[in-house]
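Page 47, continued from p. 46.
Same chain as before, 396 aa.
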Amino acid sequence: MTTAPRTDAVFDLDALLSSDERAWQQRARSFAQERIVPVIERDFENAHFRRELIGELGAGGFLGMHLSGYGCAGAGAVSYGLACLELEAADSGWRTFVSVQGSLAMSAIAKYGSEEQKQQWLPRMAAGDAVGCFALTEPQGGSDPAAMTTTARREGGDWVLDGAKRWIGLASLADVAVVWARVDDPEFGEGGRAVRGFLVPTTTPGFTATPITGKLSMRASVQCDVGLDAVRLPGDAMLPGATGLSGPFGCLNEARYGIVWGAMGAARSCLEAALERSTSREVFGHPIGANQLTQAKLADMFVEVEKGILLALHLGRLKERGALTPAQISVGKLNSVREALAIAHQARTILGGDGITDAFPVMRHAANLESVRTYEGTDEIHQLVLGRALTGLDAF
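Result:
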């Protein structure tokens, strides 16, 4: 689907990148094109997650690549973003896997874990020998984590967790779950109702993970319902460095940053499919790309892809300086996903009836992006984050 001139020929992104950043992007592009693209349509159709690729992603350095030490690559924020872009150009499910493993589960351990917890889990997770999940969202809704009902209570020296989580990526495959729960104990938070994180080996009695079926989106990925029924953990299972909702939010911002880049990968894939079709399909005696309306659509899609990538690059440079704010991440997440969906829909019109088939990736990307639009903060949540930043008034 890339026989037409690459969009890079019009806008020279490489000129804005270091040689190391270009190398990471090319490595991720090669992996995506060689290991994911040839099988993704079949995997999406069969709702199959190709677990054997996890070790290959680890060997490539992509798991927790933005973290340093413990077997992690220590790559810069822009390099990580470019890898997310290339993986999501193949399929949102695989960028989601890298986000859940690295930006959520591994980041939680790296940011908030004890040295013993880091040594136990991070090297194995970086190599792809262990999989993690991040259990925050609950069945009644994900946008209000302050209403969390999952609890952790002390029994002697142990912790006992009870509750339920929903839409937890990788949970049925995971070796360890980062579970967020309310602790009713004055020792562990103001008022005795602080949110704390716990590392739960998924073999622990009382932990169950059931894959959610019937999905029409993210079909080559795994999301689960999680049950916690008197899950007993040792006293040192708590993440010592996270108190309150700032803990999970710190990880969510890492994942949202990856989405800013990743959604533009899906958008680029849709644009390239439409561009190839516009030069190879002839109607009324000439390629449809010779029609003014088709060129206008391609130009508009291209402009939004490049604007989105430039915004992602700007946010990446801010992140590398330690200056990136949550409101700025909301700008990127809101814009990238919203524009990527619009581009997918516009690309489909150029593809005509064939655009609804798996001969092209566009409908799959559009379906996946509906999930990306919802997770890590809906459009509405990010609009409210920005509204608060603009007005100083809290509308939550």
